[in-house]
Amino acid sequence: MSSAQTLTRRTVVIDRVLGGIERVGNKLPDPFMLFLLLFAITAVASTAMAWANVTVQLPGTDETTVIKGFFTAEGLTWFTQNIGVNYLGFPPLATVLPILLAVGVAEKSGLLAALIRKAFGSAPRWSLPYAVAFVGVVGSIMSDAAFVVIPPLAALVFKAAGRHPVAGLLGGFAAVGAGYSTSLFVTSLDALFAGITTSVTQNLPNAGSVVTPVSNYFFNVVSALVLIALAGFIIDKILEPRLGRQGIAREEIIDDGDVSGAAVMHTRLTDTENRGLFWAFVAGVVVAGVILVGLLLPDSPWRNEDGGFLPRSPLLSSIVFIVFATFVIPGLVYGKITGTIAKGSDVPRVMGHAIKDMSGFLVLAFILGQFVALFNFSGIGSWLAVAGAGGLESIGLTGFSAVIAFVLLASLLNLFIISGSAMWTLMAAVFVPLFVLLGYEPAFIQGAFRVGDSATQVLTPLNPYMIVLLTMLRKYEPQAGLGTVIARMLPFAVTFWLAWVAVLSVFFFFDLPMGPGNGIMIPQ
């Protein structure tokens, strides 16, 4: 059988698999309707369990929890009185919104894009794959904008350096998508995950350490460094050579079949932009210096009663403020120097744009808040946790194998539920209490979820940015399809998943802290 026939058969198999995934995924409702449906199921189930007088006793307590029904006098009264509280009390809102405002200033002022262009433009030719990997993995700081900004810039830089632009394009997308849940920096995603985790642990006895936006920071830093190295290696040694063997065009192909070498984006910064970056850096150093001085003071108000910062202190409760200041002050300085923020009224304008970009999440948060609140009110979450923990114990699946099974489940669900916040809300409601009962810190389970939440999202046609990438790819390869993209994303997804699980294993077996004040197992 010729190599061409083998390739054709392989393409047919890939297309069949992708078609099956797409058909199954298309049957799922959008996240809002999905959680509305789950809310209705929980309401009916809680009512049936209440009528059956189902109770649950959490280990470590003497109290028996009675399941409360939604369609009862008590349940309906609770809901009608608390629908607004359930929404505004949804913990992620209190952490995500301030950080979004700050990141909005840094992004809309042009600071984040300038930093990316600076990182690309100053990288030598041999290091470009690793520069793209670095910018892609930490690019989640820009939220979903990273999927649109980083790949074409990476293609442009590769082309200017005489390397294959498609390798930059695909490598940039893979690094952003497959490494989306980790970064060297604290992002709004950290705040979002921490808020969701907190919302499902607040009613649990002995729920371990408080989960904050930095509770996975140590794990994130190690994961990011490993994934950056792997992504750079794959781009350099696997993706780019294969593109050469396949004869993929290095120039954009226009409608008449000719090629165009015209660049539509610029990586070199202007003198004004460079000056803005310099003073933004100075502003960032000043902010860090002020915070550091405040921490080092013997009577620092950020210390706890014992004079330290761990496991709980005003410092850890002030993480949102610290992240806010770290983004907004350099962003304002950069915007003022470059003219993107010329007057005071521009500040609320760019903040408003940031909130507008997240309006979909604000709408989704309404039903997420109702679902989480009903889960807590009814007691179903506690019942599922106890029943699930007992089931795992009965089959002997309580150690690290249970964590791996959890990661696998998250990876599979990630093929169909692209929204990380929606999927973590769904999984955290059941699995965080379950693993808490098995003795695991919520922050550790949240870290395990990150692995499954990222690695496979570059493989699913349900990722809307796959279509954006395919459009960019067809400028070089007009016949490319979703199967083409997925085939080239597979080395990243599989390698990232295995390496990330290996990092999680190291933290687990060596009992390393996931972040400040957050370990693996709940202290007994």
From TrEMBL:
The lineage's top-level taxon is: Bacteria
Q: Where are the transmembrane segments?
A: 32-52, 128-150, 217-235, 277-297, 317-337, 358-377, 397-417, 424-443, 455-473, 485-510
Tell me the GO molecular function terms.
Answer: secondary active p-aminobenzoyl-glutamate transmembrane transporter activity
> Which keywords are on file for this protein?
Membrane, Transmembrane, Transmembrane helix
The processes (GO biological process) annotated in the record are: p-aminobenzoyl-glutamate transmembrane transport
Question: What protein am I looking at?
Answer: AbgT family transporter
User: Which organism does this record belong to?
Assistant: Cryobacterium serini
The organism that produces this protein has a lineage beginning with:
Bacteria, Bacillati, Actinomycetota, Actinomycetes, Micrococcales
